[in-house]
Design a protein that fits this description.
The chain is α+β, with helices and mostly antiparallel strands. It has 2 domains: about 60 residues; about 200 residues, Beta Polymerase, domain 2 (2-Layer Sandwich), CATH 3.30.460. Helices cover about 35% and strands about 20% of the residues. The chain has a 7-stranded mixed sheet. The chain has a 3-stranded mixed sheet with strand order 10-12-11. Strands 8-9 form a two-stranded antiparallel sheet. Strand 6 and strand 7 form a beta hairpin. This is AbiEi antitoxin C-terminal domain-containing protein.
Amino acid sequence: MSRSRFEMMKIIKKEIINEFDEKFNRGDIVLFKDINNMLKTNKLFSVLPNVTRVKDLISFLVENKVLIPFKHQISKNQSTTKYAFREIHKYKTPLKLRKSSFLSHYTAMYLHNLTENVPKNIYTNQEQSKKPSNKSYDLQQSSIDKAFSKPMRKTNHIVLFDNFSAYMLTGKNTERLGVIEIEVEGEVLPITDIERTLLDVSIRPGYGGGVEQILEAYTNAKSEISINRLLAYLRKVDYIYPYHQVLGFYLERAGYKESQLKLLEEMNIEYNFYLNYNMENPSFSERWKLYYPQHL
């Protein structure tokens, strides 16, 4: 009597697992096409009945804890199940999902010791393709007011693991400005440096733990930050909005030197601007022409 595909997989269990151990590293993402290719081309699997499908092999590997499933939510209405090999590495595994992505925002704040809080989620960034310069854009006060009267838009591209979620951000192309490599839990991983991190969270406070946490990060960075580098990054990225007013406010509240504040104050301060989105009854800084939460 011929054996079923499941019985045959049990018989060659050790050999199957060895094949995957040789091909993948712990924490790698194993795609459907990877398994399909192995099933079709690897001689080991030729002993399995022809009715054996990729999902059969996946079920076998999940059952034996070789593959760990997780949910990859690409949008509100689109998600898929993906698999990590042997383990979920909190920082490396999310980076494996997108080419040239790097750790950023609240995750970078934490790994650079700029906050004592341990973020529940991981933030990674992948830059968009290059787009035309913003210099010809005619910025109006009314458009600023309208944009910041609403809640900050957040990504729906989220990867859901058992103990945490990873937010897959898509940022403006900067040619990986300020992206460095550091060792994180035994892995050398790409991450934004301190100046780029502070710039990113100042622009998207919802990805930095909120304005209170960001102000704390500026305070904690005081002995390490290069203001000249921070301003160089700001100029190179060429944002439409006057984020130098946000940076100036944070630096002032964190107790930076007046000479450092002057570098930002000398930049054109033409518009009323906002520290955060959707604020109720905010206070106003005359120096930076900036609305900010009253409690700050």
